[in-house]
Write a structure and sequence with these properties.
279 residues, alpha/beta, eight-stranded mixed β-sheet, 29% helix
Amino acid sequence: MATTAFTALACPLDGAPLAPVDGGWTCPAGHRYDRAAQGYVNLLPVQHKRSRDPGDSKEMVAARRRFLEAGHYRPIAELAARAALTELPPDAACLDAGCGEGYYLRQLATAAEAAGKTPALLGLDISKWAVQAAAKAQRGTATWVVGSNANLPVLPATLDRVLCLFGFPVYPEFARVLKAGGQLIMIDAGPDHLRELREIIYPTLKTPAPPNDQAPPGFALEQREALSCRIELDSQEKIADLLVMTPHFYRASPAGRERAAQLGRLELTVDVRLQIFGT
């Protein structure tokens, strides 16, 4: 798959440019970050961690990989890729901030190749298990990094696109790394997303919060789009994977999780909202 090497990494300790060296990356001050055997690099210093093993667990990552690779969320991936590739400059650099196991960035790379574009891609996640899985699945698609959205190891004003899909946005950091004229592409759950599952695992559903029409500081809203479709899960294993890969697994009561475990088939609403913010 034809992509361009990502060259805008920054040292997480001093912010200086990182240069590739044999087996890793180093900055002018001599801070070195070795590439793991799976092909990723860890740019999350211990002092930037809030827990010993932050982010999604190995089990959550495996469940998400199985669910996404089955194609259930392909329309979401196509929506994100179309938004990212629209008017994308030839020498563009793109970050998936909270890339998980890499599904959406791999789909973007495939769509870019079909469109004759070769962007430099960076996938970043705070979970080492997620980044490890992403790098193992497609080592040549992107540069894969363990890091935090709160302290992006990226040089200022070097990115054309930042994607944050079902993630945790840190708007000042996104604004810092985007070029003038760059775009932040966000996809979040809509009010009816997975409603049928939520009705099973929760006693009552919360009233959805009204949409926030205010653009984050440093950004201007350029586009909004809704996507709604239906999917069918035809086995208990697929339903379990969906539940485990979402925060609902931990928010639901034991009784709610047990009700979901009894299901062998479930039709679901997929309801997401795309927002594009320009710098």
